[in-house]
Amino acid sequence: MNDFAKLYSPISPSAGLDKMKRYEKFADEVAELIRTGVLAPGEKVPSVRHAGRTYGVSLSTVFQAYYLLESRGLIQARPRSGYYVREHAKKPLHELTTTHYPVDVSDVGVSELVFSVLKSLKDADTVPFGSAFPHPNLYPLARLARSLAQSAREMSGQAIMADMTEGNPDLRRQIALRYMVSGVMLPVEELVITNGAMEALNLCLQTVTRPGDLVAIEAPAFYATLQVLERLQLKAVEIPVHPREGIELDVLADCLAKLPIKACWFMSSLQNPLGATMTETKKQDLYALVEQYQTPLIEDDVYAELYFGKQPPRPIKSHDRNGLVMHCGSFSKSLAPGYRVGWVAGGRFSEQISRLKLMTTISPSVPAQAAIADYLQHGGYDRHLRKLRHALEMQQGTMLASAARHFPTSTRVTRPSGGYFLWFEFPEKVDSLKLLQLALAQGISLAPGPIFSATQRFRNCARLNHGHPWDSRSEKAMEILGRILKSF
Amino acid sequence: MNDFAKLYSPISPSAGLDKMKRYEKFADEVAELIRTGVLAPGEKVPSVRHAGRTYGVSLSTVFQAYYLLESRGLIQARPRSGYYVREHAKKPLHELTTTHYPVDVSDVGVSELVFSVLKSLKDADTVPFGSAFPHPNLYPLARLARSLAQSAREMSGQAIMADMTEGNPDLRRQIALRYMVSGVMLPVEELVITNGAMEALNLCLQTVTRPGDLVAIEAPAFYATLQVLERLQLKAVEIPVHPREGIELDVLADCLAKLPIKACWFMSSLQNPLGATMTETKKQDLYALVEQYQTPLIEDDVYAELYFGKQPPRPIKSHDRNGLVMHCGSFSKSLAPGYRVGWVAGGRFSEQISRLKLMTTISPSVPAQAAIADYLQHGGYDRHLRKLRHALEMQQGTMLASAARHFPTSTRVTRPSGGYFLWFEFPEKVDSLKLLQLALAQGISLAPGPIFSATQRFRNCARLNHGHPWDSRSEKAMEILGRILKSF
Fold it and tell me: What is the pLDDT of residues B149-192, one digit of tens each?
């Protein structure tokens, strides 16, 4: 019995309860083995006949699964020989480790740089490696439009008024239900519906801080985090992030003990830009830490649904017994870009957050809320999510392989278990702001390292987006980037 | 030739160019004469035959116009005698004059009171005199739902992404076009689309102030203005407002000369709660003042479309030669409650406002923007607005008449030329917070005076909403309010 046989357990009879087809499930299990390295690049996958016999599934199930895996770019058929794990990850770039800098309290002054970079990324004709969003065609826009039409037609004038203060009740119920399924029991009243997660995060931070306060954030951090801190005149304490395991807890513990930190703002799963997801135990330990110091934690979890594994990562919120965690989510990355519907489960701060929202934007668009509620009930959200995750996983593999082909061999890269970003650490001599300029001149965008740091570190790093369909232009762009990188 | 004949000029031949029907136009002219008092309550309206002959319109046009005016409650038929201006305004309550208080710089601490009052107004079963919105059925919700369905179906993924940063281009063009028609030439680039006017106002104020700064506002002012000042730790300089003519300019001039005022936030037309609309000349003078001191002016113009007269009031923005005026508008009161689409023509501050928006909510809902753009192009906005204004004007007359029947005779009241609010000044002994409690116990809401003041003045005042269909319950509610008022 080889590794494959040892690790792959036959499908349980209860599987039929799920709407997922048997062959999809089988394909997912094999994909997991590939992703985790149990089935190495170049290794032969068990023959259709062999797999069918060993695991008690029909030959057609195995065949369909392999066909699916081939279409997802994970395996390839060799004539008269069978299926093999694709070669592209055979000589991968080395994986990144934590970048340590001395931790310090710093004013944030990165907003101008971020805006100038974002402005340069706007041109629709560039290869969008610098983009913050996946390709819009990955989303069920036509189906959403139907939900929008349907719910707008049925909406009463009274409901429009009521939903402005309370949020759409169906939407809140659906969100609470999804929390329940992922192991978080949440009273519907704790949920505040917002204009995307960005508003939720802003409201949370304003609720628990005053100008001049210290906030612990990640290094590297999502650049909008830095802009919000700058805008609210807050000081950043940058905690290093391990590219696979997230926040370095000992550094955080040290900072919480020594500094008057008023709030933490972390992404516990699929952190932007590194893609790190903390283990369950680590999340528990992090919660224990903030509980010990009674430090409010803003958990930015907008990529939660984009995991590649079998189990959704649980949020830190699931350990929260004191209402200390404000868990922010959104449909912008998982379902409905542009609808601008997000939320926060605000714990003990919910009432204050809700009031602050009434004073600033009053409410997110009521028809948009109703449309998403309708879609969640009738649209097939989980089916869509599986397709989305598959597409992103496949494209990640393709970009990793392409980078291995073209980038300098000393380049290091992350291996996120979800999302649509890769973070590259290039050789020391590379200046990523310069790199961006040179790349833009060739019609390629990227997100340079310094915009992810309050202190403009990560000079030789960049975030690349693989959420767009891969084509010959993308491959060519990677080749050009590789050439520019080698010129430094 | 009586007053009516002197003042009413025959319809010009170009009238047919407008989509408004001839009889509607004729009815509007007569309504104007009634509103301005040229035709007094109880006075006989010229006979159908006489009017037709004098003004060169067909008898059927006059007849249809009178029928419309009757249905709008402005005139009534007496058997065998003809039409008369309705009696109800015969012994009207006296009109309010400016309430002067010593002007002072004050911290704002009214938010808790406002929230507790707003909470008490939530019960859907109360007679909603305290509401901030007209009845939702006054809006073309079904037609808007069609626009929503249509535009969502047609929207490309690329457009969804682009509209998040730039705003929907059709919507911006349509808004700029409406400015042009009302005499303001505006480059489309100056427009920032926001989550309703509330977000626009917040962004403007944050753009031009820092905590501790002084801001000139109106007394009484819209309570949300006060909440925003409180939230941003700004100090209020309350300028008295004349109930018909708006801001007292001499007081403002004095304050601008003596105090380091960093911004003005005024409603130049149909001010909430008084309903005052400044004259064209006064608007010009106000602009000259802020220009002299180079004080940024935030012009909150959300009721602009709800005027009863023939001409739309022009905004102060129309005099702006220096980009000093940030003109904020919204579709929430005129077209699409709950869609949460507003805008600001931000003058020289546009770029900063737009950046601040990207950092806080990113964008209003993209499908909602597209729906409104579609409606503005194809939905018949101006026709809807005429109907809406007619309904509000009729209901204003009805509430004024009812107040004259039931409220103490020393009560004073405003006579706004638009909108859906009346502001009452009750006898000195009345405590409107107490009044609210007693009224709520009887199932009636109202907006008490003190929530409209940074210093909780206007104890014996209240704002009543007449934007809901008038029925026997409304009449009964006025009677009960009258009884409570007399008990003080």
Answer: 999 999 998 889 888 888 999 999 999 999 998 889 999 999 99
CA distance B432 to A236: 47
Instruction: Name the one residue in this structure whose structure tokens are 């009434």.
Output: A358
How far is Cα A204 from Cα A135, in angstroms, rounded to an integer? 29
CATH of domain B3-87: 1.10.10.10
Q: Is B90 on the interface with A (CB under 8 A)?
A: no
User: Which regions of B284-337 does DSSP assign to beta strands (E)?
Assistant: 297-300, 325-330
CATH superfamily, domain A94-99+107-137+383-487, is Aspartate Aminotransferase, domain 1 (3.90.1150.10)
The number of C-alpha atoms within 13 Å of B435 and in the hemisphere containing its C-beta is 36
A199·B356 Cβ contact <8 A: no
Q: B140-381: what fold?
A: Aspartate Aminotransferase; domain 2 (3.40.640)
C-alpha A392/C-alpha A387 separation (Å) is 9
Distance CA B245, CA A406 (A): 72
User: Which residues of chain B lie closer than 8 angstroms to A153, CB-CB?
Assistant: 142, 145, 149
Please tell me the distance from the alpha carbon of residue B43 to that of residue B87, in angstroms, as a whole number. 9
Other C-beta atoms lying within 10 Å of the C-beta of residue A190: 23
| Positions in chain B whose pLDDT score sits under 70 | 1-20, 36, 72, 87-91
What are the residue ranges spanned by the domains of chain A? Answer: 3-89, 94-99+107-137+383-487, 141-381
Amino acid making up residue B323: G
Distance, in Å, from the CA atom of A255 to the CA atom of A235, rounded to the nearest integer, reads 13
Q: What is the CATH number of domain A3-89?
A: 1.10.10.10
Contacts of B154 (CB under 8 A, 6+ apart): none
- Alpha carbons B439 and A231: distance in angstroms, whole number: 44
Q: Is A125 on the interface with B (CB under 8 A)?
A: no
pLDDT computed for residue A10 by the predictor: 40
- At the top level of CATH, the class of A141-381 is alpha beta
pLDDT tens, A101-138?
A: 888 888 888 888 898 888 877 787 899 999 999 999 99
Listed by number, the residues of chain B in 161-180 with a beta carbon closer than 8 Å to a beta carbon of chain A are: 161-165
